[in-house]
From TrEMBL:
Gene from which this protein is expressed: limB
Top-level taxonomy: Bacteria, Bacillati, Bacillota, Bacilli, Bacillales
Keyword RNA-binding assigned: no
Family: To bacterial alkanal monooxygenase alpha and beta chains.
SUPFAM superfamilies: Bacterial luciferase-like
Short name of any one Pfam family annotated for the protein: Bac_luciferase
Name of this chain's protein: Luciferase family protein
Length: 337
């Protein structure tokens, strides 16, 4: 019998139309407190640069802010884009967060820059070299967080001995090989890049090597989740999500827009088709529908240990309701295992 499935959330700290960046951060805090109240395992915050519709550039600062305004829930990065940062600095930052808040801090690591190439260059690291150095830099971080006996001359103080949990993020099969080889938990970005998800999860599970960090494979899948009292309402709310992905494909990065009764009035047929292809594994509907969608997902992709929900819903009250419905649904499923 499988272990109970955990549920968690990813937030990119989007700016809603009519709001400013401070309001977006306040909404992130309010969401974090709501998720903690409903027993979510963790909230992760993404890293994006030069994105005028998102306030998630200084990820470690936002994680600290969320930790400060919560009490028990894990808070982490989904992820820190390692090509942008020296591993020593990342270890120092997350070691400090662990020192301040205890074992509530996760470090999810990505191998992409999380931005365009011009912006990646402005971040002052060689983005091309950084991608190739990713496996070595993951090893450096694991060493920095390890015991005193494994340290070299350069130490990431106060990270030594903190054992901050490291997760490998991926949107292709490359990171699946690395996570399996290092015996680390694996997080797949199914919310925007589902094309290689099935193959990547299978590779990770098949090639996983037990380690001091993890004895068996641990798979987190990030999915878009929009739940409401009816399928019709959920699909109406999901038009906000479609507009977000269309703006990404356009390269314009528009602020989060309210839902619309007719997507064809704001998006072209091509944009609608491309957005839907990106979000084909979204869980959208009422509890009964989403329960069926989860069953279909697990039948196709195999068991996953945790679903990390991204809910692009314009109305924050309805967004909170969606996360509550998702918690209730997963709890009901777990009771029936």
């Amino acid at each position: 019998m499988p272990n109970p499935m955990k549920y968690s959330a990813l937030n990119l700290v989007p700016i809603r139309k009519g709001n400013n960046d401070k309001e977006a951060i306040d909404q992130m805090v309010s969401l974090a407190q709501h998720l903690e109240q409903h027993h979510y395992e963790r909230l992760w915050i993404a890293e994006h640069h030069n994105a005028p519709n998102l306030v998630s550039s200084a990820t470690a600062l936002l994680i600290q802010h969320a930790l400060h305004h919560t009490n028990t829930m894990r808070i982490g990065s989904g992820g820190i884009m390692l090509p942008n940062h020296a591993p020593l600095v990342v270890a120092e930052q997350f070691g400090t967060l662990n020192t301040l808040y205890g074992d509530r801090v996760d470090l999810g690591l990505g191998r992409a820059p999380g931005t365009d190439m011009a912006t990646a260059s402005a971040l002052r690291r060689d983005q091309h070299q950084g991608v190739y150095q990713f496996p070595d830099e993951v090893q450096q971080l694991l060493q920095y967080f390890g015991p005193e006996t494994k340290q070299g001359y350069v130490k990431a103080i106060p990270a030594v001995g903190k054992n901050v949990p490291v997760y490998i993020l991926g949107s292709s099969t490359d990171s699946a090989h690395l996570a399996a080889r290092e015996g680390l938990p694996y997080v797949f970005a199914g919310h925007f890049a589902p094309q290689q998800m099935q193959e990547a999860i299978a590779i990770y599970k098949e090639l996983f090597e037990p380690s001091e960090y993890l004895k068996a494979p641990y798979v987190i899948v990030c999915l878009n989740v929009i739940m409401a009292d009816s399928d019709e309402e959920a699909h109406y709310l999901s038009t906000t999500q479609s507009q977000i992905f269309a703006s990404i494909l356009r390269g314009r990065m528009a602020q989060m827009q309210p839902p619309t009764d007719d997507l064809s009035q704001v998006l072209s047929p091509r944009e609608i088709a491309m957005a839907e292809a990106r979000i084909q594994n979204s869980l959208i509907g009422d509890k009964a529908s989403v329960n069926q969608q989860i069953n279909a997902f697990l039948h196709k992709y195999g068991w996953v240990d945790e679903i990390m929900a991204v809910s692009y819903i314009y109305d924050t009250t309805l967004q909170h309701r969606s996360y509550r419905y998702f918690q209730e649904l997963i709890d009901e499923r777990n009771q029936n295992l």
